[in-house]
Amino acid sequence: MHPASLLSYYPTYKILDEILSYGNYKKLTLFIDLKNALQTTYMEHAIVNIIENSKKSRFKDSSIFSSLISFLSFHKIYGIKRGVDIDFIIFFETGQSYYHKNISPKYKISRKIDDLYGLKREDRELFYEVLQSNFALIDKAGNKLPGVRVLRLPNLEADFIPYYLITRNKVSKDNDTGFVIYSNDHDMWQCVDDQCFIFSKSAKSKKIIKAGSIMSTFLRKEVDIPDEYLPLAMSVIGDEGDDVYGIKNVGPARFIEVFETLVSLTGNMDTIYKKIENNDALFDLIPQSIPNKYLKSIIDAEVANKKISKNLRMVSFEIICRALENPSAIAMIDKREIIEKIISTNSKAPLRALKNALEQTGVFLTESSIDMLYI
C-alpha cells in the first residue's frame, strides 16, 4: 500500500506558499491532528489491506507509521526548497476523554465503530491491535526524530493542544513563525489568529482558513461577529459530530438573530469564561418578558440544567486549558505533566540507531523518507 493512501492529507506547494506569503514567515510549525488526518485508514480497502499484511508477516503492519514518515518528509523537502524551517507537533488521544464524559456521557458516543464492514471478530481485533501498535510506534519513535514532537494524551481529547501551546506560549511565537493546523474539524477554528491558519482538506476541496472569516464560515452567512464567539455559537447551535446537542430549533440563522441580546445578558467571552470557571450564573439579569421565543429557549435551557454552560465546558478550548492549568483532579495534573515533558524535551536519536531499532520491529523505511528528516 502506498504511504500516501493512508495519510492522504497533503497540501500543494501552492497552498504552503500562500501561507508563507501572509507573513513572510521563515519558519512553520505544523500541528497534525493525527486521527483526523488518518480518516482513510478506516475505509474498507485500507482495513482489509492492513489485516492481510499483518497475517502474512510475523510483524504487525506498520504502514500507518510509514505513511506519517513520508508525510513529514514531503514537508521537509518543501522547507528545504523554500529555505524555511519546519517543525512538527503531532497530537492524538487514546481512550475516552474522562473530562468530557464526566460532563456528558453521550459525548462522541455515535463515533464508535461497530462491525467494520462486517469483518469477523478476530479480524476486527487484529485491526485494532495494529492501530494501537502503530500509535505506540508513532509516540515512541516520533519523539526521537529531529524537529518532531508527538503528544499522545491518555483519556483526554487532544484537540485543544494547538490552542494551549500557542496561547500559553509553550511554543515560540515570534513574528517570523507561522502556525498551520492540519485538520478538517471545525473545533480547531478556535485556534485561528493572525499567525495561525487551518489547512482543511476534503474530497472536494483544499483550503486555508484565516482569521476574520470564522464566524461567517460557521454560520454560513456574512456576519460581523468576532471569531472569539465561536465556542458560544457551538454551545447554542450544538456540535452533533461530537454528540454535543444545542437548543432545539436554534440554528445559525436564529443564533444570528439573538446574538446581540444574548451577549448583552451574558457579557463578552472573557466574562463568560470567568462565570463558568467560578460556577456563577451565566445570565446577569433575566428579563421578565422575553419576546423572542428562540432566546427564551436558550435562557430556559440554561436556567433549567446549565445546558449552555455544560456545552461550553466541552467545546471551548479556553475552558479546557483553564481546567488543565487549575486542575481539580490528579488526572488533569498528569496530562499537564505529559505535555510539559514532551514539549521541553529534545531527545533526538542518531539516524542509524533509530533505523536499527525500527528494523528490529519489522519497520523498513525508504532512505529518501526518514533520511530527509535529518537534513
Question: What's the topology here?
Answer:
Layout: H1 13-23, E1 27-33, H2 34-37, H3 44-56, H4 63-82, E2 85-94, H5 98-103, H6 121-142, E3 148-154, H7 161-167, E4 177-182, E5 196-201, E6 206-209, H8 214-219, H9 230-237, E7 238-239, E8 244-245, H10 252-266, H11 269-277, H12 293-305, H13 307-315, H14 317-325, H15 330-344, H16 351-360, H17 367-370
Parallel strand pairs: 1-2, 1-4, 2-3, 4-5
Antiparallel strand pairs: 5-6, 7-8
Question: Gist?
Answer:
The chain has helices spanning 13-23, 34-37, 44-56, 63-82, 98-103, 121-142, 161-167, 214-219, 230-237, 252-266, 269-277, 293-305, 307-315, 317-325, 330-344, 351-360, 367-370, and strands spanning 27-33, 85-94, 148-154, 177-182, 196-201, 206-209, 238-239, 244-245.
Task: Explain what this protein looks like in three dimensions.
The chain has about 375 residues and is of the alpha/beta class. The chain has two domains: about 5-210 and about 345-375, 3-Layer(aba) Sandwich (Rossmann fold), CATH 3.40.50.1010; about 225-315, DNA polymerase, domain 1 (Orthogonal Bundle), CATH 1.10.150.20. Helices cover about 50% and strands about 10% of the residues. It contains 17 helices and eight strands. The chain has helices at about 15-25, 35, 45-55, 65-80, 100-105, 120-140, 160-165, 215-220, 230-235, 250-265, 270-275, 295-305, 305-315, 315-325, 330-345, 350-360, 365-370; strands spanning about 25-35, 85-95, 150-155, 175-180, 195-200, 205-210, 240, 245. The strands form two sheets. A six-stranded mixed beta sheet has the order 3-2-1-4-5-6, with helices on both faces. Strands 7-8 form a two-stranded antiparallel sheet. A hairpin with a 4-residue loop joins strand 7 and strand 8 (about 245). It is globular and about 70 Å long. The two termini are about 25 Å apart. The mean pLDDT is about 95.
